[in-house]
Amino acid sequence: MKRRRGRGGFTLTETLLTVALLAIITAAGATVSTTVLSTKNDMVDTANAQILASTVLDALADEVRYGVNVKVASDKITLDSWRFDEGASFEVVDGRVKAENTGGTLTGGKELLLGEAAYTGLKIKADSLKFTAPDGKNVVIELVIENGRGDELWEDSRTVAPLNGVTTP
């Protein structure tokens, strides 16, 4: 076969080699991007878990600090609350902190401590909300935040001194 001179272009081998190299570079870039995005999402979830824990603990601390007849027993608390009335207690229901009271004045028997928007796809681990009074003067509130898959993201606690004292068994 006669070859023409002066005609530019690439051979089939050069073209295939270029396509193969581009495919390798693209695959490596996709892998790096996926890893970076996953790490970013984990960091955002952890930051949101810290914010949620702080917000829930602040709200509970206010209830305990300003509550009357604060009683702590078996990791639970009851108090007369400025917001939730007499005999208020707090528990985790469907990943949210809900208050209920013995007076039955709450709509539906239970009310959210915080609005749904505060949870941003996260939840409080079932049975992780604990109230203790180790020294009989201060109340320690503990909780664990987890994501929708059940992975624990953040554990936090807050010590509160009720202004009106605390009763323990």
Task: Walk me through the structure.
It is rod-shaped and about 100 Å long. The longest helix has 55 residues, at 12-66. It contains 1 helix and 10 strands. The N and C termini lie far apart (102 Å). The protein has one domain. It is α+β, with helices and mostly antiparallel strands.
List the helices and strands and how they pair.
Blueprint: H1 12-66, E1 68-73, E2 76-81, E3 85-93, E4 96-100, E5 110-112, E6 123-124, E7 130-132, E8 139-146, E9 152-160, E10 166-167
Parallel strand pairs: 1-10
Antiparallel strand pairs: 1-2, 2-3, 3-4, 4-5, 6-8, 7-8, 8-9
Give the uncertain stretches in residue-range form.
Answer: none
- Give the total of domains: 1
Contiguous helical run count: 1
Structural category is alpha+beta
Helical residues, percent? 25-40%
In short:
With 169 residues, the protein is α+β, with helices and mostly antiparallel strands.
Features of the shown structure:
169 residues, alpha+beta, six-stranded mixed beta sheet, four-stranded antiparallel beta sheet, rod-shaped
